[in-house]
Specification:
The complex is a heterodimer.
Chain A: H1 2-8, H2 10-37, E1 39-41, E2 51-52, H3 55-62, H4 64-97, H5 103-109, H6 118-132, H7 138-162, H8 166-174, H9 179-208, H10 211-217, H11 224-234, H12 237-258, H13 264-270
Antiparallel strand pairs in A: 1-2
Helix pairs in contact in A: 2-12, 3-12, 4-7, 4-9, 6-10, 7-9, 7-10, 7-13, 8-9, 9-12, 11-12
Chain B: E1 3-11, E2 17-25, E3 30-34, H1 41-49, E4 56-61, E5 64-65, E6 76-79, H2 91-101, H3 106-119, H4 135-147, E7 153-157, H5 165-182, E8 186-190, H6 193-199, E9 202-207, E10 210-215, H7 217-222, H8 227-232, E11 237-244, E12 247-250, E13 253-256, E14 263-269, E15 274-277, E16 286-296, E17 299-305, E18 311-317, E19 329-334, E20 338-341
Helix pairs in contact in B: 2-3, 2-4, 3-4
Chain lengths: ~270, ~350
């Protein structure tokens, strides 16, 4: 055995150890979560559960408020994504193509919502929502979610539109396309990867949002992450594990589906201030 | 007249721009707009294509004013320097895009695309995507896309400048061939004088937003209208001379004073009109010393210092340079020159 390690060299050994630590750090909690979700009985000091089973899955899926929170979450995430596409894509096109005063400042201002402590921002918005009667409404929750994604939804598509070269638009005009046709057939399809990435980001972000929803949506609009809080405090940890797998599943599915589109390039170029 | 540009002017906020542009182009001509970067040649081309709104003047194509029309309504088609193609469409869809807008039938589109690809020698490339093509192939597809729309005027904005030298040569020849076959009227913008000389029926030399000269390549080369054109096109020697009635004197050499100039002049002499001799012959000559001998393949460029008259370069056959070396005394005769008044600056 020793001759083998000697042959490999210290550099490779260090690399191997680091990689193992890294893998444990990342995969360890996930494996633990998976094991926990399928546990019926697991007492210290055993390494693996004594009884495996779907008890907690049945329990979680039988509870009405949990199931309804799942559909509510997806409804809200869809609404948030669609609304922010409608609002942010034209804005992104304007940022990419038009020259107007204070353009950089406007673009930069989207960062502001991320610059303050979230809770402070939400509380001040909640005060406003009380006056407008938006507390405990679907619209209120959707608006709170949109505040979080405005930045991604504007910055990433802006850079996607910038990457469509002016000559490409002009040559489409040149062969006979009207400005609207150019946007529909050339600019928009070419910027689509960036827009898709931003939309997926928005969808996942909305699925995951808990703080703002908790403040604005209680008691009628409980999304998955909000319900998660009460499950963790009221039931054994296995129920929480089951629920967090349900919560993670859409993220994994969407990311795998979008893997083709999500390149470091698209994301990185979204955060360049030009 | 296929294309007429009348008193066109366009000024940018920076003060750059063009003014007093008058151009007439016959059907089937290939005319080059030539000049250094920033001279306004692209401004003229983009105005013709409809991508720029001129401050004043008119543009007529086949007798009809097009100045009010947007690019999509003009009977022109443009090939850009780069980023011509739409990366999300196959070559076929890139070519068919314009025809689909014109509501052509599928069979018509198919045969037009095939013909155009054949013309640019890219048959069978229709299913490829732009990212799979080389730079030269992309420009050929862009050319094909413009060709199949059969424009009244084809505009080319330095289409080959991003390609390497060898490919640029090939593309030039190909473009010339395509022009012969199709008989299209073309306006070609370039800053490369060699490209302009080899390609054009006529050249429009521009400088600082004005037209310096419009003429055939041979005439531009032999009789540059201004000192600027003389210095911009081809290699040229500039010597000090004095004009006196019938003749212009450069040292001991007398040449005819065709323009009837007076006083100090600048004599422009092509290197091929300069002869070198080892000994002073019967003809009047200028004495000088060889400054440098450069072998440039099948010929050599010899630089001779003529003292206060200036420096002169000559081309020699490479087997004649054996006896020449730096510092050697040499005698220079000049067979032809064009004189410009001394105060004319460029």
């Amino acid at each position: 055995m020793f001759w083998y390690w000697k042959h490999v060299g210290p550099r490779r050994i260090i690399e191997f150890v680091l990689l193992t630590l890294f893998a444990i750090f990342f995969a360890g909690p996930l494996v633990n979560l998976l094991v926990l979700a399928f546990t019926e009985k697991w007492n210290y000091p055993d390494i693996l559960p004594q009884i495996w089973g779907f008890k907690w899955w049945k329990f979680v899926l039988a509870k009405d408020d949990i199931v309804s929170s799942i559909s509510l979450s997806f409804l809200i995430a869809t609404l948030v994504t669609l609304l922010s596409i409608v609002i942010c894509i034209p804005a992104a096109y304007a940022f990419a193509r038009l020259q107007f005063p204070l353009k950089r400042m406007f673009l930069f201002s989207f960062l502001l919502t991320h610059a303050f402590p979230k809770m402070g921002l939400y509380v001040s918005i909640a005060v406003l929502f009380y006056q407008l009667g938006l507390m405990n409404t679907l619209l209120g929750v959707v608006l709170i979610h949109m505040i979080n994604v405005l930045m991604f939804m504007t910055w990433i598509p802006t850079s996607a539109f910038r990457n469509v070269h002016r000559a490409q638009e002009e040559s489409a005009r040149d062969v006979g396309a009207s400005p609207f046709k150019v946007f529909r057939s050339i600019t928009l399809p070419m910027a689509m990867p960036g827009i898709m990435v931003a939309s997926i980001f928005t969808f996942l972000n909305s699925l995951d949002e808990a703080q703002g929803t908790f403040l604005v949506g209680i008691p009628d609009y409980k999304t998955m992450p909000v319900v998660m809080y009460s499950i963790i405090s009221d039931f054994p940890s296995s129920a929480g594990a089951v629920f967090s797998i349900i919560l993670t599943l859409p993220t994994i599915i969407l990311l795998v589906a979008a893997q083709r589109l999500v390149s470091a390039d698209v994301l990185a170029s979204g955060f360049q201030m030009k | 007249m296929q294309l007429s540009v009348r008193a066109l002017s366009k000024r940018y906020k920076t003060g750059d721009g063009v003014s007093g542009i008058n151009i007439d182009i016959q059907k089937g001509e290939l005319v080059t707009l030539l000049g250094p970067s920033g001279c306004g040649k692209t401004t003229v081309l983009r105005s013709i294509g409809g991508f720029l709104e001129p401050d004043s003047g008119d543009i007529l194509i086949e007798g009809q004013s097009v100045i009010q029309l947007p690019p999509e309504k003009r009977p022109t088609s443009m090939v850009f320097q780069s980023y011509n193609l739409w990366s999300h469409m196959s070559v076929y869809d890139n070519l068919a895009f314009g025809l689909k807008i014109r509501k052509k039938s599928k069979a018509e589109i198919q045969s037009a695309v095939e013909d155009a690809l054949k013309l640019v020698r890219l048959s069978g490339f229709d299913k490829k995507y732009p990212a799979e093509l080389s730079g030269g192939q992309q420009q050929r597809v862009a050319l094909a896309r413009s060709l199949l729309l059969n424009p009244a005027v084809l505009l080319l904005d330095e289409p080959f400048s991003a390609l390497d030298a060898k490919l640029r040569h090939e593309m030039r020849e190909e473009l010339r061939e395509i022009q012969m076959k199709t008989g299209l009227t073309m306006v070609f913008v370039t800053h490369d004088q060699e490209e302009a000389l080899s390609l054009s029926d006529r050249i429009i030399v521009m400088n600082h937003g004005r037209i310096e000269q419009i003429a055939e390549p041979q005439r531009i080369y032999d009789e540059p209208a201004s000192l600027y054109v003389a210095s911009f096109i081809g290699k040229m020697n500039f010597l000090r001379g004095v004009a006196a009635q019938e003749s212009i004197q450069i040292g001991d050499i007398h040449l005819p004073n065709e323009k009837n100039l007076d006083g100090q002049v600048i004599a422009a002499v092509r290197p091929e009109d300069v002869q070198l001799q080892l000994i002073a012959g019967d003809q009047p000559s200028l004495a000088g010393k060889i400054k440098q001998v450069m072998i440039l393949g099948h010929y050599a460029e010899v630089t001779v210092d003529l003292g206060q008259l200036g420096v002169v370069r000559a081309f020699l056959n490479k087997d004649r340079v054996d006896q020449l070396h730096t510092g050697k005394d040499i005698y220079v005769t000049i067979s032809k020159m064009i004189a410009y008044p001394h105060e004319e600056s460029y």
